[in-house]
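User: Sequence for YCII-related domain-containing protein below. Tokens please.
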Amino acid sequence: MRFMLIEKNGNRAGACEAGAPERARYEQALVRAGVLLASERLRPGAGDAAEVAGFWLIEVKSKEEAAEWVRRSGMNARIELREVLMPDEFAARGGVGCGS
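Assistant: Structure tokens for YCII-related domain-containing protein:
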């Protein structure tokens, strides 16, 4: 199963730099465990709302395992966990997946 771990830290000045050491340790743990498929950081936007700072795409055996990776982050950021539907899973649901 694939999951996207979406890092949200708001649009706080310095939030990205302040969390860099924790983020690096977390990402290395994902790599060592062999679960990391992709990871990207995003440039800050102009708004004040809770903002996506980046994401990790992982492949694990269950939602519970993915949730455990969220708990292990050790970062001072909110991480949203979302399952990624593969094309065959999306088709099996009759194209339904948004919000379900």
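The chain has one domain: 2-92.
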